[in-house]
Structure formats: C-alpha cells, structure tokens
C-alpha cells in the first residue's frame, strides 16, 4: 500500500485492470494475438505491447532503439510515433514472450507502487514527448484510465465482456465527464446559455448536465436542467466507445436517444472523443 491514501484508489484501479488483462491474454493461442481491436490499427498484441511499454517507461527502463516502418498510416504526429515504437518493436513476439514480459512487468511495477513514498502533488515527468511536468496523482489517474480503456478494447476483441463497473470504470467515467464541457462548448459550438443533459444507463449509470455560460465556457455538474437544449440518452458501454474514439457516431445511432436540437446533438456526438 502507498504512503498516501489519496493515491490508493488509482493504484487499486490500475491493479484490477492490469491483472484482468493478464488473465485475458494468458490462454490465447497464437492467432488470437492478431485479432483486430477498436483501437485504430492495433491488434490484441499491439495493445498489450503498448501497455508493457508504458509501464516499463514508468519503471525507468530505457526506450527501445527502433526505426518505424514508413507505411504505418496511423502514425501521424510525434505522440503517436512515440507510442508506436514500443508497439512495433514487439510485433513479432510470440504469445509466451508477450505474457512472460507482461507478468514480469506487473510484478516490477506493483512493487514500485507499493513502495511509493512521494506525495500526491509531487512533480513527475510525463512519459509523452515534451517531458512536461504533471503531478504523481494525475499520472496514476491517467494510467488507471488508460489501462481500463485498453482492457475494454481487449474484451471486445476477444468476446469476453466484463468489468464495466470496476474501480477503473469509475476512474474512466470521471475523466471522460471532465471532458464534456470542451466537447459541448468548444468542439460542438453550443451557443451561450445552453444546457445539454447526458443520461447514461447500464452498469455505471449517471446523469450529468453541461451548461454553457454567457461567456461561452462550459461547466459540468450532476444537477438536472429544466428544458435543456438537448438530452442524450445512451448506455454506458456506448458512451465509453464514443468518448474513447472507438466508434463513429453514425455506427451507434440506434443506441443513442436524442431529444431536442438534433443539429446540436449530431455535432456533439461527432466530436465526442476526449482521448488523444
């Protein structure tokens, strides 16, 4: 257990998701590692490679020296290039090599987290390009979020649903909800003095209202709105797929109920993704 209780929920969420991922991939036969996931251009092997790579970087391991092929169409900028190196370097690894490295990484990283002495507000280096500083608490929160989203990528690819209401799901919900004001006010261009309600059902049900003030800035809270411009009703898994950029709005149109301004609703749904 960490020295700071405020970090423990993120450590617990991280642990639950990464152990679930290990359990999911341990019995896979070689062909199953090549199944496509909804994470653009990545297979099951690629998603697990990404997870291993990110955790190894947090352990302080040196980054692989590796030249990417030139035909990777999904590598469009420096962040995607940075992430792809850890993935591409493992593309020819066998199933046993993948599970062995994952399990060893989990052991090492779990030990590191158990022995964490730094305060939640301690500054740490972001593992993405640029080396900006973030707090340790934010870093752990992002890792719990990323792992749960990728756990769901793997579950959908392998036909093994589950953990939609886990600790990681709660972390993911809170982070995704925090992105709603930008989606509604900036990306979708909702006019000032507009309210938009998101009514989410399923294993992790909630209702949130985004209000766009007279200054055009959006805020989000859990209180209901009288006469919102738009109400979007959808299930939790559809919400996750949209917010994580795993599906286009038109592909799940039959799973989203729209009340109110359909033009604004369409703009929101087409700009719903809050992940990089």
UniProtKB/TrEMBL annotation:
Gene Ontology MF, one: metal ion binding
Residue span(s) of domain MDMPI C-terminal: 171-265
Residue ranges constituting the Mycothiol-dependent maleylpyruvate isomerase metal-binding domain according to the UniProt record: 15-155
InterPro entries: DinB/YfiT-like (IPR034660), Maleyloyr_isom (IPR017517), MDMPI_C-term_domain (IPR010872), MDMPI_metal-binding (IPR024344), SCP2_sterol-bd_dom_sf (IPR036527)
NADP as UniProt keyword: no
This protein's UniProt keywords: Isomerase, Pyruvate
Protein name: Maleylpyruvate isomerase family mycothiol-dependent enzyme
Organism of this sequence: Streptomyces bathyalis
């Amino acid at each position: 257990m960490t020295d700071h209780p405020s970090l423990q929920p993120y450590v617990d969420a991280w642990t639950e998701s990464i152990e679930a991922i290990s359990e999911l991939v341990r019995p896979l036969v070689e062909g199953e590692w090549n199944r496509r996931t909804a994470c653009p251009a990545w297979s099951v092997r690629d998603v697990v490679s990404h997870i291993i790579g990110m955790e190894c970087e947090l352990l302080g391991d040196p980054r692989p020296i590796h030249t990417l092929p030139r035909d990777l169409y999904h590598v469009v900028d420096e962040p995607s290039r940075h992430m792809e190196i850890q993935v591409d370097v493992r593309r020819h690894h066998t199933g046993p090599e993948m599970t062995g490295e994952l399990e060893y990484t989990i052991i090492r990283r779990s030990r590191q987290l158990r022995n964490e002495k730094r305060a939640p507000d301690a500054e740490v280096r972001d593992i993405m390009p640029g080396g900006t500083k973030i707090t340790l608490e934010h870093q752990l929160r992002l890792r719990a979020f990323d792992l749960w989203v990728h756990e769901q990528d793997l579950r959908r690819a392998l036909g093994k649903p589950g953990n939609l209401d886990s600790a990681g799901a709660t972390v993911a919900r809170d982070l995704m909800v925090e992105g709603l004001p930008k989606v509604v006010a900036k990306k979708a261009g909702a006019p000032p003095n507009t309210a938009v309600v998101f009514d989410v059902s399923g294993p992790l049900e909630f209702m949130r209202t985004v209000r766009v003030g007279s200054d055009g800035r959006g805020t989000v809270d859990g209180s209901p709105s009288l006469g919102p411009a738009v109400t979007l009703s959808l299930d939790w898994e559809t919400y996750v797929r949209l917010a994580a950029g795993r599906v286009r709005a038109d592909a799940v149109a039959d799973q989203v109920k729209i009340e109110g301004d359909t033009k604004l609703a369409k703009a929101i749904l087409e700009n719903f993704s809050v992940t990089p």
